[in-house]
Design a protein that fits this description.
The chain is α/β, with parallel strands linked by helices. Among the domains are: 92 residues, GTPase HflX, N-terminal domain (Rossmann fold, 3-Layer(aba) Sandwich); 150 residues, Rossmann fold (3-Layer(aba) Sandwich), CATH 3.40.50; 60 residues, 2-Layer Sandwich (Alpha-Beta Plaits). Helix content is 40%, strand content 20%. The chain is built from 14 helices and 14 strands. The strands form 3 sheets. Strands 6-7-5-8-9-11-10 form a 7-stranded mixed beta sheet, sandwiched between helices. A 4-stranded parallel beta sheet has the order 2-1-3-4, with helices on both faces. The N and C termini lie far apart (61 Å).
C-alpha cells in the first residue's frame, strides 16, 4: 500500500541467526512451522551464528552471499528471517538480494492477517500492521531520493511522505476508537456475568496446543481448529452447565508464542482481557512437544504482561495419545486440589476429568451435608431444588424435610440472605461478614 518493494511469492528461503550472548534463542523448528502456516514453501534453511549484529545487513558479507546464492538457485520470492530486523536492515538486504525480505514480526503479522475472521479480529490485526508499518514508511519512497533541494525541486517527495504519515495516523486513531467500543461492550458483558455470578473459564496456552479442539468437545461447538500455528485469533464464548456449579462461560482465546510482538499484545488486549478477568485459567499444554516446559514459561510471561499471572490456574496436558504409557489422570497438590490433568482432546480421553477438575477448582468452597428443613422453610427448599443442589430427600419423625445438598457455599449464603435467615446457624464457626459478597447488602 505504501511500498515500492519486490513482489512477494510463496517460494521462501529461511534464515536463522543466533547470537552467542543471546539468552532466549528462537526455535528454528517453530520458525519453520510459522513459515508454513503463512503459506510459504521453504526451499532452503540457512543457519548461522554471530557474536554481534551487522548494523547494515544484520548478517556478515559471507552469510549474505550464501543467502543470495540460495535465492538465485531456487528463484526464491521472499527471504524470511527468524529475527527482528530494523527498517534499514530490511531495505538494505532487499537491495542486495532483489527480493522481498520479512522478519519474524512481519511474518507473524501476516499469519494473523490471514486468520482474522471477525470484524474485531481484522481491526486488531490492521492496527498492529499499521503500527509496525509506521516505522518502515520512509523506505517506500526511495524513488524520490533523486529529488534535491533548490528552486523548482523542493517539496513533492516530502509532501507525499507526510501525507501518507498523516493518513496512517488518522487510520490508527480511528481503529483505536472502534476497538475502544469493543472493549466497552466486552466490559459490559463481563459486568453482567459478574452480577449474575456466572464464573468464567478461559482456555490459554501456546499456539497449536489444542485449545480449540478441547473447547469444541467441551461445548459441542464447531470452532475452527487445525494443526497449524494461530488457528484461532478471535475469542469465542460459550455457556456450559457443570455439576455443582451451574452455568459457566468458557472462552477460547488466541494462542501465545515466544517473543510475541508487543504491538500484537497491545492490539489484542481487548481479546486477552477475557483471560485477564477469568475466574479460572485452563492452561492447555501440548504434552508431546519436546519444548513444552519452555512453552509453558512463555505463556506465563505473556500472562504476566497482561496482568493475569495471579489468577487461579489449572494445567491441562493435552495430546497424550502421541505419548506411550500415559493414561488420563488428575494430579493433585498437597492439599488435594487438582493441579494437572492429562488428556487427549482429539480422542476424547479424560474429558470427564477436565470437567471434574474445573468444577473442583471453581467450587473450592463447596457446602455438602444434610439439612433438616421445617415446613416454614419451603422457600429455601424450593430454591435449593431450583439450583439442583438437592441430591435426595426424606422425612424425619416430626414430618420435617431431611435433604442432602451439595452446592457452592457462596450460593447457599445468598439463598439464606434472600429468605432472611442467619447463616450462623449453618456455619457457627464463621461470622456473617466472612460470606458477604458484592451486592449482599442490597439482597438482604
Amino acid at each position: 500500500m505504501f511500498f515500492e518493494r519486490p513482489d512477494s511469492g510463496e517460494v521462501a528461503v529461511l534464515v536463522h541467526i543466533h547470537f552467542q550472548d543471546e539468552k532466549d534463542r528462537e526455535d528454528p523448528g517453530e520458525f519453520l512451522e510459522l513459515a508454513r502456516s503463512a503459506g510459504a514453501g521453504p526451499v532452503a534453511f540457512i543457519k548461522g551464528s554471530r557474536s554481534r549484529v551487522n548494523s547494515k545487513f544484520f548478517v556478515g558479507d559471507g552469510k549474505l552471499d550464501e543467502i543470495r546464492q540460495a535465492v538465485q538457485l531456487y528463484e526464491a520470492d521472499i527471504v524470511l528471517f527468524n529475527n527482528t530486523l530494523s527498517p534499514s536492515q530490511e531495505r538494505n538486504i532487499e537491495r542486495e538480494l532483489q527480493c522481498r525480505v520479512l522478519d519474524r514480526t512481519g511474518l507473524i503479522l501476516d499469519i494473523f492477517a490471514q486468520r482474522a475472521r471477525t470484524h474485531e479480529g481484522k481491526l486488531q490485526v490492521e492496527l498492529a500492521q499499521l503500527e509496525y508499518m509506521s516505522t518502515r514508511l520512509v523506505r517506500g519512497w526511495t524513488h524520490l531520493e533523486r529529488q534535491k533541494g533548490g528552486i523548482g525541486l523542493r517539496g513533492p517527495g516530502e509532501t507525499q511522505l507526510e501525507t501518507d504519515r498523516r493518513l496512517l495516523r488518522e487510520r490508527i486513531k480511528a481503529i483505536h476508537k472502534r476497538l475502544e467500543k469493543v472493549r466497552t461492550q466486552r466490559e459490559q458483558n463481563r459486568r453482567s456475568r459478574r452480577r449474575a455470578e456466572i464464573p468464567s473459564v478461559s482456555l490459554v496456552g501456546y499456539t497449536n496446543a489444542g485449545k480449540s479442539t478441547l473447547f469444541n468437545v467441551l461445548t459441542q461447538s464447531d470452532v475452527y481448529a487445525a494443526d497449524q500455528l494461530f488457528a484461532t485469533l478471535d475469542p469465542t464464548l460459550r455457556r456450559v452447565t457443570m455439576p455443582d456449579i451451574g452455568a459457566v462461560v468458557l472462552a477460547d482465546t488466541v494462542g501465545f508464542i515466544r517473543h510475541l510482538p508487543h504491538k500484537l499484545v497491545e492490539a489484542f488486549r481487548a481479546t486477552l482481557q477475557e483471560a485477564q478477568e477469568a475466574s479460572l485459567l485452563v492452561h492447555v499444554v501440548d504434552a508431546a512437544d519436546e519444548a513444552r516446559d519452555d512453552n509453558t514459561r512463555q505463556v506465563d510471561h505473556v500472562l504476566a504482561e497482561i496482568g493475569a499471572d495471579d489468577l487461579p490456574r489449572l494445567l491441562v496436558y493435552n495430546k497424550i495419545d502421541l505419548l506411550s504409557g500415559y493414561e488420563p489422570r488428575i494430579e493433585r497438590n498437597s492439599e488435594g486440589e487438582p493441579e494437572r490433568v492429562w488428556i487427549s482432546a482429539v480422542n476424547g480421553l479424560g474429558l470427564d476429568l477436565v470437567m471434574q477438575a474445573i468444577g473442583e477448582r471453581l467450587c473450592d468452597d463447596l457446602f455438602k451435608g444434610s439439612l433438616t428443613l421445617k415446613a416454614s422453610q419451603g422457600q429455601l427448599r424450593a430454591m435449593l431444588y431450583q439450583q439442583g443442589a438437592i441430591l435426595d430427600e426424606d422425612f424425619d419423625e416430626q414430618g420435617q424435610f431431611v435433604v442432602n445438598v451439595r452446592l457452592p457455599k457462596s450460593d447457599f449464603i445468598q439463598m439464606l440472605f434472600k429468605v432472611g435467615e442467619d447463616p450462623k446457624q449453618y456455619f457457627p464457626n464463621y461470622g456473617v461478614e466472612d460470606f458477604m459478597l458484592e451486592g449482599d447488602a442490597e439482597v438482604s
